[in-house]
Each structure stands twice: as C-alpha cells, then as structure tokens.
Amino acid sequence: xxxxxxxxxxxxxxxxxxxxxxxxxxxxxxxxxxxxxxxxxxxxxxxxxxxxxxxxxxxxxxxxxxxxxxxxxxxxxxxxxxxxxxxxxxxxxxxxxxxxxxxxxxxxxxxxxxxxxxxxxxxxxxxxxxxxxxxxxxxxxxxxxxxxxxxxxxxxxxxxxxxxxxxxxxxxxxxxxxxxxxxxxxxxxxxxxxxxxxxxxxxxxxxxxxxxx
Length: 213
Description:
With 213 residues, this protein is an alpha+beta fold. 45% of the residues lie in helices and 15% in strands. Helix 1 packs antiparallel against helix 2.
C-alpha cells in the first residue's frame, strides 16, 4: 500500500521526526552535530522555513517547523540528503543514513504550540541523557534563553504567549519547561506515527482534504 501523501500548504506547522536507518546513530561526534546545525541554518533560509524548536538526539532528530511555502518534503529531502553525503564521506560508508521517509505530524498551532515546544525541549532529560533541559547543548532550549541561535531566529513568538513583558515571559517559559508533562499529554505528543496533532475537528478537516487528493 503506498504511503499517504503529505499535506503541505503555506503556514503549515509540523512535528518532524527523522530517524537513523534501522535505528542507527546519526551523529558520532560533536563535529557531526555542528555540521547538521550548520546545514539546517542554510536550508531553512533557502526554503523559507521557520524553526520553532529542535533537538538532536543520538539516533533521531526532532524538528518543529513552520512552512511559508508548501515545500516540507523538498526541505527534508535537501537536509537529509546533504547530511547523508557528509556522513558517508567522512566515515567511508555507503547507503542510507536516515529511514526512507521521515515522520511528520501536522500540528494545530493554537492547541499544541507550547505543549510541543516543551516536549521537544525536555526530550533529552526525559531520555536520561541529561538531568535538566538547560544541560543539553543540542536543542533549541538555549535559543529561548539567550534570544535566538540562528536556527530558532526569533523565539519571541513563543515567549510572548506567556507575557508581553520580556523578563516575565522568559521566567514563565522556564517555569513551564520545568513542569512535568501529564502522562496522557506525553502519550499524545510522543506518538511517532504520521498524522495529525490536534483536536477532532482539526483531524477531520485535514483527513477529508487528504482523502480528496
């Protein structure tokens, strides 16, 4: 059975999970992670993508993206192909680095923006890699603490949801990140399947659109 077509349109929000082929590692040293981030900075400029959050784990990557054009597949092809060529050349390997198809969930921004942001930023701590999100160097949590990092270029859209006062907004953001995610919410956010992250009406709307394509 062919995989369903991805829904793409200007202004769409996605939670992307790109995994290593056969659950293999994607990054083998610090230079590899820096290279991925460098390529991410270049590609988001070329494809007019906004990154709201990211986390580079060991064998997968989380991305929370907003497209200005209907080009999510083209963007992901560019970043995964370029990074695969880099890794294969550096380590004298061949073949796929990533799974053939990345996982993507269309996100209902109003309902899940902050929840998904927190989920991605606490992923390294939840996985036991670090004790606290701020101890992990390879996520965008630091961008929210310092005002951007070149991938997340302007974290104010998210911070402004907490308060119009920048200092108060940052304080409330940190408190929010350090709160435990309720188990049922974690279960919804942690789904690795393609699909939709939103309420019943949101899911119905886009399932209908998908079935007509």
